[in-house]
TrEMBL record:
It is a single-pass membrane protein. Residues 1-18 form the signal peptide. InterPro entries: KCNMA1_auxiliary, Leu-rich_rpt, LRR_dom_sf. This is Biglycan. One of its GO terms (biological process) is monoatomic ion transmembrane transport. One of its GO terms (cellular component) is plasma membrane. Coiled coil: none annotated. Keywords: Cell membrane, Disulfide bond, Ion channel, Ion transport, Membrane, Signal, Transmembrane, Transmembrane helix, Transport. It is found in: Cell membrane. It comes from the Eukaryota.
Amino acid sequence: MASFAFISVLLAIGMGEAFNGDNFELECPDECDCHYFRINWVTDCSESNLTEVPYDELSKSVYILDLNGNNITHLKRFPGDIKMRRLQIADNRLTKVEKEAFAGLEYLIDVDLSGNNITYVDPESFV
């Protein structure tokens, strides 16, 4: 019985510190609401009056980042160690997408840029 309890503790510690083999940091920017949707970490910063992406406050484990309905005018390079799959940044004030905006986001598969005033997209933005 004691060995079963010991194994359970080891599993709980392992699950708390790792997820898919990565350190599982669940940070959340102050202006945002963060939660799980199924097994995915969602950072919802929609309609938060943001003027820039809170790059330094994002969890490395963020799966979906919702920045819809803010006042963001410029995208800088995201930290390369973020595992983000979906970026929602519709209805902001973006006018262009530079080459470095999505560089390093190896897991990104979906970006919603609708409802912006984009007049220029660097041809290598989504390489």
